[in-house]
């Protein structure tokens, strides 16, 4: 237990599993009270009983639901926009529906949730917004990530725009760009290949350190960006990618 986020109130989307869940636990260990939200009620159950954590089902594609849950949560200091989905395929495999869904979940959701909380942050003159991007975006092009990479590049643009608008008003906004992280959805993507053993090897092979990241490789960066230790950091796109973009 630490006190790097003592007294802070945080709100996290997609906190049922993977990096969002790990952030909820890490933030609460550092003294924050956390609203952990996710589409999946079952996944959220694994956080029940975590000190300082309140769970709520929230689909970030619903404007009305976002507004309702944000009003219930009230004033917050830290917003971690983590929700995102991976569409696998090149432009030729990406239907308009896939494209629209990817934009809705991966970037329009951040517009919705940020709009719900930013006025309160500006009123109080403080706040840290952390947006989940990826190195698979403007930083590095990867095969079969058309919709994903485009939306994650948009996350970086969105982050810089918010940072620029709020730079003198006490609210910071940064993006994190992980490499390949071993999370439940990555395992799902691996299992979808005809040869999952080879697929895992291929994911490892694109990581120059010869291993995938764990969620614990990413949470220290999230805690840093949530805390006042990062007071001079805004508008950044922070890689935590095991050297993938050297
Ligand atoms: N795993 C990786 O290799 C990797 C790398 C870089 C970035 N990311 C990004 O990190 C984020 C989290 O991914 P992960 O792999 O840690 O976790 P994950 O993909 O295993 O879990 C994501 C969670 O998001 C929730 N979710 C999906 N759609 C939602 C919606 N509409 N509203 C609310 N919640 C929703 C799911 O229920 C699930 O609990 C995503 O934005 C992803 O793009 C992942």
Tell me what you see in this structure:
- With 246 residues, the protein is α/β, with parallel strands linked by helices.
- The protein folds into two domains: 9-178 and 215-240, Rossmann fold; 181-212, no CATH class.
- Helices cover 44% and strands 15% of the residues.
- It is built from eight helices and seven strands.
- It has a seven-stranded parallel beta sheet, with helices on both faces.
- Strand 1 (9-12), helix 1 (18-29) and strand 2 (33-38) form a beta-alpha-beta unit.
- Helix 1 (18-29) crosses helix 8 (215-226), helix 3 (63-73) runs parallel beside helix 4 (96-124) and helix 4 (96-124) runs parallel beside helix 5.
- It is globular and about 50 Å long.
- Bound molecules: nicotinamide-adenine-dinucleotide (NAD).
- Residues 13-14, 16-20, 38-40, 43, 58-61, 82-85, 105, 132, 134, 178, 180-181, 183-186 line the site of nicotinamide-adenine-dinucleotide (NAD).
